[in-house]
């Protein structure tokens, strides 16, 4: 039994929303760190966790400082929580799904996932972030293209199709605009240059 959670103690359970928790690796790190600090995780998924802890020994401020040590933090405020949910939905859509139709229907996917119109989501996102939602989506697409190029399993035409570009030329132009180099130059350099998904801008 976790030593900070004695059986008869007056424990507190609550759900927290977490910034920069964008991949399964983040989940594993979070679980390990919380366990080390006597915080029980009752449920966890990208961007949020339901935790149980002893409030006499560990307050939310301490929980937040633990998160900050691993590059995360508790999100306060409903709209800020929506922004983080948007980020996670975009990452799921572009980096974790192999369903081409989901990529094509990115706006519909976000609307279905978050229950708000695309216009509302874009407005909330721009209110709290330094870039637009559309640019955030493009940045993620560029990082996914880098990953697919690094894997060297698909042609550029196949990558363009998967990533919802109407042509290789359109993909190439956007890639060059966002990175300053062409896809072929990126491939020739032989250096994997992917950015962390929580540090795209």
UniProtKB/TrEMBL annotation:
Coiled-coil region(s): none
Residue ranges annotated for the HTH araC/xylS-type domain, each copy included: 108-189
Pfam families to which the protein is assigned, alphabetical: HTH_18
InterPro entries: HMA_dom_sf, Homeodomain-like_sf, HTH_AraC
Keywords associated with the record: DNA-binding, Transcription, Transcription regulation
Lineage top rank: taxon: Bacteria
Listed PANTHER family: ARAC-FAMILY TRANSCRIPTIONAL REGULATOR (PTHR43280), HTH-TYPE TRANSCRIPTIONAL REGULATOR EXSA (PTHR43280:SF2)
Stated name of the protein: Helix-turn-helix domain-containing protein
Protein source organism: Paralabilibaculum antarcticum
